[in-house]
Amino acid sequence: MAEFRMPSLGADMRTGTLVAWKVKPGDHLKHGDIIADVETDKGIMEIEVFENCIVEELLLAPDTKVPVGTPMAKLKLEDGAEKETIAVTDREQPSPPPAIEVPTIPVPELPQEERLRVSPLARKLATELGVDLTQVKGTGADGAIHQMDVEEAAKKLQPKPKPAEKVVALPPEAKSPEAKPTTTDFQAGMRRAIAAAMSRSNREIPHYYLETRIDMSHALQWLETENQKRSIKERILPVVLLIKAVAKALTDVPELNGYWIDDQLQVQEAIHIGFAISLRQGGLVTPAIHHADLKSLDELMAALRDLIERTRGGHLRSSELSDATITLTSLGDIGVEKVYGVIYPPQVALVGFGKIAEQPWAERGMLDVRPVLTATLAGDHRATDGMIGARFLQAINTHLQAVEKL
Amino acid sequence: MNYGIDTSTDNSPLMIRTTYREAVRDAIRESILKDDRVFLMGEDVGRYGGAFGVTKGLLQELGPDKIMDTPLCESGFTGAGIGAALGGMRPIVEVMTVNFSLLAADQILNTAATYLHMSGGLFNIPLVIRMGTGGGKQLAAQHSHSLEGWYAHIPGIKVLTPAVLEDARGMLWSALEDPDPVLIFENTLLYNMEGELPATAGAVDIDRACIRRVGRDVTLISYSASLFKALEATETLAQEGIEAEVIDLRVLRPLDETTFLNSVAKTHRAVIIDEGWRSGSISAEISARIMEKAFYDLDAPVERICAAEVPIPYANHLEQAALPQPTTIVNTVRRMVTRHG
Amino acid sequence: MAITEIQIKETIFKLLKNIAPDSSPEALGQEDDVRETLGIDSYDFLNFMIGVNEEFGVEIPETAYGKLITLNDMTQYILAHAQS
Fold first, then answer.
1. What are phi and psi of B207, to 5 degrees?
2. A228 touches chain C (CB under 8 A)
3. pLDDT tens for each residue of A327-360
4. Which of A39, A225, A297, A315 could bridge across to A17 with cysteines, CB 3.0–4.6 Å?
5. Which chains touch B (3+ CB pairs under 8 A)?
6. 3-state class of B283 per DSSP?
7. pLDDT in tens, C11-49
8. Distance (Å, whole) CA C37 – CA B42
9. Do A17 and A67 contact (CB within 8 A), yes or no?
10. A238–C41 C-beta distance less than 8 A
11. Can you give the three-state secondary structure of C43-61, one letter per residue?
């Protein structure tokens, strides 16, 4: 007993159509006889048999389209031999071979010095997040550092609030008992991150500094009146006026709101003010108050409260740490009069505020005592010139004098 | 096996079931009927119906003025096509496979691609050359190579690689409308691919690559038959939580780099799948452009999966081993997309 | 039952400890500058005022902030304004 199956008449043939049988059951066939006409995409073919046999049964009606290998007829071999199939060039489809690995080009031996292997994206991200790459554990091939590794490291830079909770999430591979992280480790990590960012700033950014004194008497009187309308919990801190004034000044002088990347100033439309928050255990984070120009004073106060609480509780979001477009630092609480800041790259400006203190104030030939604030600007001279910086400080003053419009 | 690619451009509900082969045939028929200057010539295109059965029945339907059998002489009939184009016709020259096109390489490069330049801008060559390409059918080393990347090296011509039915149906007319020489490469493994097309399917653009699957973790850049291997690989990868974006280049010259650069900027990783040999291939060109223009977006080196650098073997298991396969794509992507943390 | 100075001080220490967990408010001398000694900024001080308000029912106006420098200042102010 043998089967005649739909033959493969070309490697690209998947199906064939039986046009007509040239034999009927009982016929004796010899080598070379035509058993059927089959139509393929290339036309109608006459199919031969290559064995002497007797047709037992036809299994397929004419005009039927079937896949290659489908049994079409039962045959009996004349010499009594048992054969599975009789067909022309009917090759079994071999099972797919195991996939071969594409050879990768070996990396040549590096010279003696150790070099960090960092993907371009990871390198860019590390700069943005202030992550020191020498402290990052790479999980890629040969310890290569990828985007994810930098993100992990950046997470660990976030402050841990209470010294009581000295647990920092570690990647699984670092869970050896002697590698117990401590607050000191964490602070050291933060220190290194600050060091990396500030070193880069000093190395790359030609700073210029401007300062101006601002009479705060009107702003403070207005705030006092405003706060009297509020319960103690809703009171607005003076620094909120400063945040809003900076945001509005940036809408007047947008050149200071942005980044210096690829040798050019990339002014940003959104105003995200990085607010420097010192941690009690040391260190500093500058999370962003998003869209500061679009928030009311009450909303800004709420945002600031939320940011400080989350900073000290270690629940900042990565976007808040990376997308500030300018930094504001206010050190007046500690009693300093002026701040000469270091720009946080790739930003192009840093605004500093000292304390609001009573000072002699000369105006229209009269001497008075007024609460005075010194505002400073550290500007990136690659991106802007002193004239722009001066306009910006002037704009801050103007907005603080018209405090009711903030 | 159309992987749910919706290539319908038309709201009409009338869809016809067709094959890649029939789509090309319909495109040839339509072009000849639509424009009196269009005719087709090549080896065995008439009485035999085409080496791959593409032009079956067209001689009987359209007559010997429109479907011309030529002698076995690629240089001769490609040159005749160039002359006809100069004389105001819109010839479609069919070269059986790219392997034999080398006999016409002088006509294509030194005449068709340079004529506009050599004539000081006076004469265009509005010629379309169609040829089969690709391996995987046990036709052995002299019939199985993929040299479309070579032609993509030549300024002055366009190189098209239709993969989906819509492009098989629609690229020819756009190519005929182009004032300069256009080469269309049809991977012969695709001829039997079945699917649905709107009954009204027509011309498509021949300028842009397109995204056939949206993903976030890696960009698979491919064209022609390899596109389907890439899509097959994405199914396995998706089960492992890796979402690959798949780009169908469609046009190898001029290369639409914007589409794949934007994708790489999003996924940070790229794998190029190319049935041509690795060295000096179109995959090398794409890789170089990614390095030049998306370097800072890369989180891993660009990878390439190409044909082994051997004459394509005859034995089936060796041939399959020499060509890019979905498993290789899966393994490569797995190695690149590490998930931790 | 009137609130005593001792109770006020204990409550102040508790509030300050919450705000500055790493400091030792109990060690404050009567005439020490509280903000300076404990490193309390204006935001912390506002939270301290909110705490005082919750604990003693005293609402201290901003104008009075300047008079609340030492531990003694604070204790006396609260003693004078707290409801029995």
1. -120, -25
2. yes
3. 999 988 878 899 999 999 999 999 999 999 999 9
4. A39
5. A
6. helix
7. 999 999 988 888 888 888 888 899 888 888 888 999 999
8. 96
9. no
10. no
11. HHHHHHHHHHHHHHCCCCC
